[in-house]
Structures are given as C-alpha cells and as structure tokens.
Amino acid sequence: MSEQRVFFFDYHRIAESHHWKLGKGHFDKADQNDKWKDQEIRFKQINEKMVRIGVFDENADNPQEKTFDYNDAEELADEEFARRFPGEYLH
Question: Is 0.90 surpassed by the pTM of this model?
Fold first, then answer.
C-alpha cells in the first residue's frame, strides 16, 4: 500500500477583521498511524489568526486513477472554511 497523501490549506486572518486570505496550499504525507477516508476533510485551529484544513485524496500517487486534483481539494477546503466561519470573508 502506498503512503497516504493530503492536500493542506492554511487560512490566515487579516489583522483583527472578518477577512481571511488563503495561503499557498501544499501536498504532504499523512501520518502513517492516522488513516484517512477518500476526500475526508479535517480542520485544525492553529491559533486565533490561522486555521489549517486538510483534504485527503486516495489516488494522489496514482495518476491513472486520479479524478480529484488540487483545485477540487481547494474547493472542498473553502466550503469547509465557509461552513465553520459564516460571515467571514475569504480573499
């Protein structure tokens, strides 16, 4: 079995406002002791000005089976952000 890989997106609050910006997303290995389900989304509050949302892609290491990409993962992460932070603005 290949290692599990996850898209991570960091959202940063702009000053003391209701405005946030998305930092550059990155793709990394999941902890081998932590099993994810395909397209599972996980949220982590890093601090008051930053949150991280991870989206798992079970076919990340197999281009022939790939039907999900970075843009799909970012869209799911943005939807999760909007669900958790209603009334906040993403730039």
Answer: no
